[in-house]
Specification:
Two copies of one chain form a homodimer.
Chain A lengths: L16 H8 L3 H10 L4 E2 H7 L5 H13 L3 E6 L5 E6 L1 H4 L2 H13 L11
Antiparallel strand pairs in A: 1-3, 2-3
Chain A binds a DNA duplex (20 and 20 nucleotides) through helix 2 and helix 4.
DNA sequence: CGGCATCCATTAAGATACTG
DNA sequence: CAGTATCTTAATGGATGCCG
């Protein structure tokens, strides 16, 4: 598999900035995790608590991907009980502008976009 | 099914602006379609041509969702051959700020985020 | 506490074939 | 040209159980 296969096929996405963003921030939870991390370092359970509905499985996978791509750092303290802290890298913090833009856009939506005719 | 089930479960996403954005702009192609539409009205085949790799099936589904949620207008001209033009609504055009933020972020990425250690 | 492994449900998306 | 219908694949994401 090539490294840019967001889908599963030979003709994936174009190589624009938007596509690059989408490759790393894929899935509905990914962006929300970053959103929480923007408030500061979080432990695993703190993220679980801050993201009601997310599963440990999903959180683990997203976090690992972020760490792998340099958006997040993972610091494990060899204590009993163990403690692991996730923190955004400078690159991750740059995402604040994108998140803010999303939030700002949602404010312009007159709520009618979320109550479409056909469900 | 409820209208906000991005996933399939009873505890979906929080109701923040970011989540709302994610509900409408889901999947890797959705945002890229909007990106093309920001350049002006497009016919179906023009979008197919502008988005190498996308299938008619996917394009149709994304377009229908956008129209349903008021991000895009669909204008069909009763001609032979038929002509259908898709155009962003003012709400859709507001997304430009988000797309620009994504693009801007991707420029700060030193390309190392796309060549991770473990693939 | 912070995971990981396995199985399973949902869905975005591609391939193909067909219609008005 | 502009779809629609059906089948299939891949990947996110949830549920459960187990481990250090």
């Amino acid at each position: 598999m090539s490294q840019n296969s967001a889908s599963h096929n030979s003709a994936p996405l174009p190589d624009c900035g938007v596509a690059r963003f989408l490759l790393l921030l894929d899935g509905p939870w990914a962006t929300l995790i970053v959103r929480e991390l923007l408030h500061g370092p979080h432990r695993f359970t703190e993220l679980m608590d801050a993201l009601p509905g997310i599963s440990a499985h999903t959180l683990t996978n997203r976090l690992r991907k972020f760490v792998r791509h340099g958006l997040v750092t993972r610091t494990a303290y060899p204590e009993i009980p163990p403690r692991v802290v996730y923190e955004l890298t400078p690159l991750g913090h740059q995402l604040r502008a994108v998140l803010t833009a999303m939030d700002d856009w949602a404010l312009t939506v007159p709520t009618s976009a979320f109550t479409p005719t056909g469900g």
